[in-house]
Structure formats: C-alpha cells, structure tokens
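#structure-requests
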Amino acid sequence: QVQLVESGGGLVQPGGSLRLSCAASGFTFSSYDMSWYRQAPGKERELVASISTRGSTAITNSVKGRFSISRDNAKRTVYLQMNSLKPEDTAVYYCRASWYSVYWGQGTHVTVSS
C-alpha cells in the first residue's frame, strides 16, 4: 500500500522556521522524483520545490533563498526546510512522488501568523 505521510506543520510566527517531513512507503522511493506543493485558501495548488532521484533541486522563485528541499533515501523521507516564514506562506503543504505513477500525501497545515 502506497503511503506518503507529511508531518511537521503547525503555527509559527513570521520570521520563524519549520521543517516538514514526508515519509514514504509502498513503492521504490529512490526511483521517484519528489516534490512539495502548497495550496493556500482560495488559490490553486502550486509547486514549491522538487528534488530528482539524483538530488538535483529546484525551488520556486517566491521561496528561493528561504526554503530548501532534501531527501534521505535510506529513511525514505523527503524534507522541506522553511526559514524566514511569511504570512503568505500559509497553506496546506503536500508531498508528491512521481515516476511512472504519481502519488500524493494528505497534506500538512502551515500557518504563519503573529
């Protein structure tokens, strides 16, 4: 059974940091490109960051310099480190795995507010 389970979300003040984790099971994690998406209230889901099977990363411009993505194939986990958080980063953050199939996690809520 394929599972992507995100964790690490929560309420944080502006300027704070969070690290999201996405634990994978049920498929060959190391063969899949991994990415983080987010969906803010009333907005479409958008790509935030991605990491290939070889470790190449891409970060969307709105979070470049503040967010980073990494993966640990031994732990079957992908991470999103979020620093200098802003209220506009408030969203549900989703983990996605893609190769021949595409899998999504259930999402974790991030709220940036004072």
